[in-house]
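Case study.
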Amino acid sequence: MRRMSDLEEIKKALEEWRKNKEAWPERREAFHTDAGIPVKDLYTPLDVEGIDYLRDIGFPGQPPFTRGVYPTMYRGRFWTIRMFSGHGTPEETNERWKLLYKEGETGFSAAVDSLTFAGVDPDQEVEGAAHEVGKEGVPLYSIRGVEAMVKDLPIDRMSVALVVEPLTSAAVTSMYFNVAKARGLRKEQLAGTTQNDILTMTIGYIPWGSLKPADLLKLACDLIEYCTPMKEAPRWNPINFTTYNYREGGIDAVQEIGMGLANAVAHIEEMLRRGWKIDDFVHRLAFHLSAHRDFFEEIAKYRAARKLWYRLMKERYKPENPEAYRFRFHVQTAGCSLTARQPMVNIIRTAYQALEAVLGGCQSLHTNSYDEAICLPSEDAVRLAVRTQEVLQEETGVGSVIDPLAGSYYVEALTRELEERIWDYFLKIEEMGGVVEALNTGWLFGEMSKAFNKRRRDQESGEEKVIGVNCYVLEDEEPTPPFRTNPRAAEIEKERLRRLREERDGRKVATLLDQLRRVCERRENVLPVVSELTAAGATLGEITSVYREMWGVWQLPFVA
Amino acid sequence: MEKKIRVLLFKPGLDGHWRGIMTVSKALSEAGMETIFFGFKNVDGVVEAAIQEDVDVIGFSCHSGAHLEWSRELVRELEEKGVRDDFLLLIGGVFPEQDHEELRRIGMDGVFGPGTNTADIVKFIRENLESRVQKRG
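After joint prediction, the assembly is written out as follows.
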């Protein structure tokens, strides 16, 4: 322990140093982090006063988990290289996944199209739906799509992430489970994640014909319940609180984690209300965070988030399972930090952001491709994005040591500051009744709108620099050749559905859809019947239409 | 007092990326225009609303990759109703620069890709509406 006189001496010497440098002008009046936390010129032992090593920092794999959730971290096993990917048709996506696997990817992740996200079939009476087939991701409208997507891939050895939200999470996840089981996988071998995040499909992205927040929460918890306490997929992460998607709107690191914790609490409370014990499910809750512009703040954010999750568990829920205290998270580098102009600069941005995630102790990582501000990634771009992670793993040595920035006066002080600010923001949402209430009243939409506009003002005034956009602009830049998705995708998918409808037992599907109506009416868990439905060849649109019919579509409380 | 410029903004189809359209909406309001956000809609309802609301500008934001399809539909719908020349048409969002020319050829007057400064959109609207008024004399 440091003697007080040491700190006194340091304080005096620091004052002296500051006085001496008064004659040296600084390039701006004040510095602050991306979240607006003031940044001093220098951090010293004075800034970590009161931080107790064993209590506040500790050891990796031990409370409060500031230094990482596992005792060996990347010395045991590198983070999973998990690239979010999908386009055109399931067959084309399958080819892309094989390429990524060959290039060294160690986990799969399905990016779906806008129809799969909203639970709409391409032949459904939703005008224009066919325009968007396969454009934003892979179309997964029936079990046949999922089957084609994972064909010949080692899904028994590599985990799969399904990036679908509560509206379609039960259907798409059960399609995957049914396909995997048909390939001989046992329940225990179903390793992967469903995103299943209510805030992603409300404040992150507003899908066509969404449901009321309480209904989305119900569907999200149905999947948690089915996979975890009902033990239908005990190794599956049935939810991934994807703060990344709200962060993309322009909110800051404090809001990102604050909203994420509040979101998790809403699900925990709903599961407890259903009569489950905390230890029945909480160890399977996981997160998906952003890696953004401010290098040190993002690293401090990951450290603070682990600590806060531990605190939330310890103070409020007290699970017995030690796994429940580990804040496990995937990271995606910030898509909204990429620019269409001078796209090669995106490689540099992404590399720094990937380094943040690694220094912050992520469990898996997606690195964006340089052309993603223009189109879906091309093969060359995505290969470079995988290489970006491989350089970190094989060449830089950053994985040889655990939490190397611990003990940095700045990083420790920032971790503490973020921890306090995030907790306050989280409590603020709690006080207004939690995330469902904050969605119903429109408050969360207002937070997003404010963020959109602040970012715009800051970028247009030049306060927030964006290379190639508001500084270091190149005139007469040659545009990057865009990757184009299959223009025949809608035709191919309509034909796939036509054949499916012809070949399946239509009466069985109709009977099961009626059964789903009754399940919805009684508000029972939809998974058992949805699983039977997808096995019988029911489509995403058919299943989601029942939800809309039974529960009604949500009118957004829009705050522009 | 001069009549305020009225702008109708919408998101076509199923694509739920809402940051761009909200950002532009706010910027246009701050520049003194009246903006109506029509939500996530198909184009026929939009054209009806544009006529009823007597707007000067129709704009949409597209991140779905279906920017060409939606632009064609909007223009077709306007032509069918015989009101193509009553509105200035704008598109923004994420699409390749190589498509800008095709979007203009289809009939989109203003094409704004990622990284656009909203001041340029405001300027574009003011200048083009002015030259239209002069043309119509």
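Observations recorded in class. The first strand of chain B starts at residue 6 and ends at 12. The mean pLDDT of chain B is 92. We will return to this complex in the next lecture.
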